[in-house]
Amino acid sequence: MSTVSPQPRDLEQVTAEIVACRACPRLVQWREQVAREKRAAFRDETYWGRAVPGFGDPRAGIVLVGLAPAAHGANRTGRVFTGDRSGEWLYRALHRAGLARLPGSTHRDDGQELTGAYITAAVRCAPPANRPTPAERETCRPFLERELAALRDARVYVALGAFAYEALAGIVGLRPRPRFGHGVEAPLPDGRVVLCSFHPSQQNTFTGRLTEDMLDAAFQRALVLAAQNNAATSPAP
Asked: Is the pTM of this model over 0.90?
């Protein structure tokens, strides 16, 4: 069984609604087709084949927002960024930063636990060719809005890729919106910060556009910003 602490009721509610969602016909058809046909390496597994909720510490100071579940990753395992190459990179980096109990995550009940971090996505169903449409992102937007509202201790939002950055910026009211780039920081009026990182996709990691050192640096910066924000907003003794 998972060792993740129980989530607050409002986060549990949005999680249940995400899992039950069938709002986008194209995405529903694709996620279920993949779950039926499977990849040969996973032919004996039962695929999740549904929308994928967020995962992590409900009292997280750092919230990571990705693109969408991978067809044979989270669409198979039911946990965001789990069971694919992107997830391998992400959880290794989170573990090195002290935010993840284990250096990897292979399935929902593998004992992985996040402390101080929560991972979610702009779109909750695996899209064909890993390319959700802007309309599908807008349909999913209320889920992300409600998750972020429930994560009341969040101080730093890490946007993993430009697609996630656009979704996140619209929700948190980021104006003006700096151009996306790895390491770009965008402060919000209340002291919270949006921090940009290239997505740990195979396209980025195989080409060297994103290195482990770059991802480590992004998470170390997120830790610093979260600590600074906590100190600034803590009541005086």
From this structure: yes
